[in-house]
Amino acid sequence: MNGVALDRGGQWIVQRLRVPVIASAIYLPLSAVLIGFKTDQLVLAALFTGLYMASAASRRWVLGFAIFFVYWVIFDWMKALPNYTVNTVHIGDLYAAERSLFGIAHQGTVLTPNEHLALRTTPLKDLLAGLFYLCWVPVPLAFAAYLYAKDKVHFLRFALCFLLVNLLGFAVYYLYPAAPPWYVAQHDTAFIAGTPGNTAGLGRFDALTGLPIFHGLYSKSSNVFAAVPSLHAAYLLVAAYWAHRAGLKKARAFFAFIAAGIWWAAVYSGHHYILDVLAGIACAVLGVTLFNLLLRAPRFAAWITRYRNAIEQPRRTLRPGPQLVHMDGGQRPGQGIIITTEHLDHVTTDH
User: Rounded CA gap, 21 and 318, in Å?
Assistant: First the structure.
């Protein structure tokens, strides 16, 4: 290998490293300042850098899925500013509203649907609730991976709409901090800042399966006072809508079924009131509506086109190869003259 080749290789590496190095140089120090250093942050930065550098295909993939990286980073950074420090947490009033609107009479008192379902738990229901709840992010991500492989246009629309719905939900978290049903069951209506996450009814799934899945998830919860809206209720609804737009009827029905299951599981497990679920559905509808309005804006549409071009595999243009042209005359069978593209470059209309 000569010096010129080495020099070119070095330039290529430096050029490719520029984007992930700049991204990591911003993300890692800022994360350390905002929420403290965690090994998860190094893993995320290493994953992004590795995929960006590995190949052209993986680079396009990580650029496309950077939308979901942004979602995760914002969610994680919310720990820096708990929503209960911004606005009053709604505990008793939300419980009273749920009880007033959806209360169920029981032995001379009125129960919320969560309290009613808590009296009727079974191992089968616990298993189903856990399985439905585990679909909240993995299924949309799997759908995104499918769209990325098959339909880049709808991939970007789904991913960006998913991000917009999350941003709307995060905004409401700060405008209307709210305690989940399990909080009222454990602490009544007293506000206790810094309350850690809790598996609530989903802990029964962990006990049933012997796998501490939800314990691991809720131990990393950004904020327990973020029950309204239920974004669990929104995600599969967004996926069902974009499956419909992409003409995927079976996927649409499948996502709608899972969405309904998550709505039930959210209430059954004590993680959300029905009001929270309805707010999540409204958040999804609003997000989809706003995103469709954005698509009508020429600048936004042009930006999406540029984004799609950046993650689209370049089309190969077929160059004409050598062609065998038979000439009249005395050639033997199978003989001819090879004409290459270089020859064709010199052919004019005078010949």
Answer: 36
Beta bridge partners of 106: 109
β-pairing verdict for 323-325 and 337-339? antiparallel
Q: Give the CA distances from residue 120 to residues 1, 117, 124, 125, 129, in Å, rounded to whole numbers and listed in that order.
A: 73, 5, 11, 9, 13
pTM, to two decimals: 0.85
Residuewise pLDDT in 10s, the chain (351 residues) = 555 444 455 555 666 778 888 999 999 999 999 999 889 899 999 999 999 998 999 999 999 999 999 999 999 999 999 999 999 999 999 999 999 999 999 999 999 999 999 999 999 999 999 999 999 999 999 999 999 999 999 999 999 999 999 999 999 999 999 999 999 999 999 999 989 999 999 999 999 999 999 999 987 776 899 999 999 999 999 999 999 999 999 999 999 999 999 999 999 999 999 999 999 999 999 999 999 999 999 999 999 999 999 999 776 655 555 544 444 444 444 444 444 434 433 434 444
Tell me the sheet residues that pair with 339. Answer: 323
Residue 150: other Cβ atoms inside 10 A: 11
Residue appearing with tokens 């009727």: 120
In the chain the first and final C-alpha atoms are separated, in Å, by 45
Cα–Cα dist 90/229, whole Å: 13
Give the CA distances from residue 260 to residues 170, 193, 277, in Å, rounded to whole numbers and listed in that order: 22, 32, 10
Please report which residue ranges of the chain form alpha helices under DSSP H: 3-35, 39-54, 56-64, 66-77, 92-102, 113-118, 123-133, 138-150, 152-175, 181-187, 203-209, 213-218, 231-245, 249-268, 274-295, 298-311, 341-345
351 CB neighbour count, 10 Å cutoff: 5
| Strand, coil or helix: 111 | strand
Q: CA-CA distance, 288 to 71, in Å (whole number)?
A: 17
